[in-house]
Amino acid sequence: MINYEEMCVESEPVKEYLEKAKLESERFQERYENYEPDKSVLQRLKKYSDDITIYGFSAEWCPDCYEQVPVMAIISEMTGIEVRIFGHLMRDAKSSTRIWACPPSPEEVNKFLIKNIPTFILVNKEGKEIGRIIERPTEGYSLEESLLNLLSN
Known about the structure:
Elements: H1 4-10, E1 12-13, H2 14-24, H3 26-34, H4 39-45, E2 52-57, H5 63-79, E3 82-86, H6 108-111, E4 119-124, E5 129-134, H7 143-152
Parallel strand pairs: 2-3
Antiparallel strand pairs: 1-3, 2-4, 4-5
Helix pairs in contact: 2-3, 3-5, 4-7
C-alpha cells in the first residue's frame, strides 16, 4: 500500500511545482496559459476528487513534462483532484544500470520503477495504485479523457 503521509514528504502540490518549473522553462507557463481543457470531461472527473490522489514524476528538461504537467495542474484546479509532483528528476548519465541519479532525483523513482516521464500514478484512498499514465495520454485522447477512462473502468 502507498502511504499518503510518506508520499507528501518529498512531493509537492502540482501548482507549487509548476511555479518553480516555470522559472526553468517558459514552456510550462505557455502550455498552462494556452491549454483548453474539455470542460464536460472535467465535470465528470469532479466526482472522483475525494477518492483519489495522483502522484506525478517530472523534470524541467523533459518535453513531455512541459506538455503534460501544466495540463494536470489545470485538471487538479478545475476538479479538486489532489495532484502531487516528485520533480527535478535527473538522469544518471554515468551509470549503465541506473536510469535516475538519486539525489537529486527522489528515491521514489526507484520505489515505483519509473522509467519514463512524466509518469502519473493514480492512487485510491486505501493506498492502492489503480492506474498509470506514462509520458502522454492514450493516442487520440486528451489527458483528462485518459484519466476519466482509467477511473471509469
